[in-house]
Structure prediction request, 537 residues.
Amino acid sequence: MGNIGTYEETRKNFQWNVPENFNFGRDVVDRYAKDRTKLAFFYEDVKGRRAKYSFWEVSRLSNRVGNMLRDLGVKKGDPILVLLQNVPEWFFTVVAGNKIGALVIPCSDQLRPKDLVYRALHSGARTIISWDAKTAEVDEIRRDCPDLVNFICIGEKREGWISFDEEVAKASPQLDIVDNKASDPALVYYTSGTTGNPKAVQHSHFYTGAHWVTGNYWLDLRPTDLIWCIAGTGWAKAAWSVLYGPWNNGAASLVVNAPFDPKRALSLIEEYEVTVLCAPPTAYRTFVKEYLGKYKVPNLRHCVGAGEPLNPEVIKTWKDAFGLTIHDGYGQTETINLVANFAGMPVKPGSMGLPVPGHEVAVIDESGNEEAPGEVGEIALKGRPPSMFMGYWKDEKLTKECFRGDWYLTGDRAYRDHDGYFFFVGRGDDVIISSGYRIGPFEVESALIEHPSVAESAVVSSPDPIRGEIVKAYVVLRPGIPPTEALKKELQAHVKNVTAPYKYPRDIAFVTDLPKTTSGKIRRVELRAREWKKGPG
Prediction:
């Protein structure tokens, strides 16, 4: 039996225990640090460098980082941009930000200068912490972001940058920790939408503690576990399954800073004796193409996947090889885990599972009424549990728009069967989820339209056997421009250069016109239907 126990009883008896004050660094990290031997995480990078850190070491190093930030003038509530790969310093910095009450803004290292400009200007950040390989791109935005004055570099020293290593080494390991209100802002994640700029999802300090629920029920973590979550630290999934989920439950994480390679990944699971694996469906799809019989993973006891639906044949192949079922889970940047398949409970093929304790989740119609079993509607969360976001930062209108009465609207569509299990149908908007990345078509269309050869473009999802979906662009060229394979490659490279590389269109179709409504709006739904009707290429 998993941590969930008897599902109905656990859900019925669950109560949120929200303290008046909460500080993850003090109340979780420092508590475990009392045992100086308790492991927090293993680290390995692409060059084979390895390290391991105890909670005691994380506590001391985060205190030093907190003092460094304070010496630079960072106060409670001040935003800091954290532009790092999966490196130990990310953990020390995020925990330090929690300890001093700063507003931590994790940023994917795949972001381009214009993405960073928006985040810097929107947040009003004065401080950015970057790894050395990104400093040249950050330098490009200095003129556009005059309020950004503290530039801190991790790694090799750079001219015009403060050395993270030098300043942290000088700082005191004793820190006066802020007694944050549980309701104070702690984190902001910028997430892609279908139109306009990214939404700034703001979370409270208790959100960092609420992930105990994610770790305990969906990840089924115990204090003796080692979990590997294959995710970048710039994404909310890292909060779920790399930091807050595991550490709230006393489990350790494996942190790997290297390009994903299925053979190497399977070897790492074997070598480190990983007990819990959290991976995007893309990773599982590549895993099952390998000869799984050569890997011995007797310690692996629980596997989960999230980000997009997982193919039944992949689930079967994995189970045939290791005797383990992949447990799907559902949530958003705006929430913690909301729906999941739990360890020790029956898993229905294709289902996302049942509502996570502490959350009343339903499928509703346009009037806010619950749909009957089998009827498709919108996934919605009732009320304001402390595990959900505070709102879209600096945008009350957008925040109000995602509520219908007592329901928070996820924008995703599903149906429930007679047993209450959720089955994902699709997104109510046009966001593309490819390899677990959320990609707004507007961003790709905007990048394409900047190219001098492009007159119009429309971007939709197209099914893919490995990535689940890929970005497909329909492009109308300017008069006199011939459609060629060379131009396709040029447009793909152009998108990679002006936005994050993972957003580029892996397929481009040149067309003479685009389907539109009478008011002139592009009918992406028609193009998307065309792609999904033909199936994976």
Observations:
- Residues 368 and 404 are 6 Å apart (CA to CA).
